[in-house]
Amino acid sequence: MYIDRVQLTTMNSVLKPPELEENDIENLSKSADIWAFGLMSYEIVHGELPNERSDLLEALESYRNNHSYNSRLDSLIKQCIAVDPNERPDIDQILYGINEILRREDEHQ
């Protein structure tokens, strides 16, 4: 896992996965890294993240429920930022999804 004890204690609360509480090292898992990947991807697509945790959670909830986004990338991001860590894809599923996106892009060029 890339998020370690030091990073967890200094991490901006906006970036913490919903399942983690303050210094909650016991619940730290690979799904927290997937959440971070989802946030990074969300930021790339939208250009920024909200500054406050409540604003972030509200924005992510709106994004997850917005059916106007239909691209495969948006679908992958939504899976990565699932509130339930058990619903997030693993890294192999993410890589497969990205490869599918790239393959389809190549077919359309």
UniProtKB/TrEMBL annotation:
GO terms for molecular function: ATP binding; protein kinase activity. Pfam families: PK_Tyr_Ser-Thr (PF07714). InterPro entries: Kinase-like_dom_sf (IPR011009), Prot_kinase_dom (IPR000719), Ser-Thr/Tyr_kinase_cat_dom (IPR001245). Residues 1-102 form the Protein kinase domain. Signal peptide: none annotated. This is Protein kinase domain-containing protein.
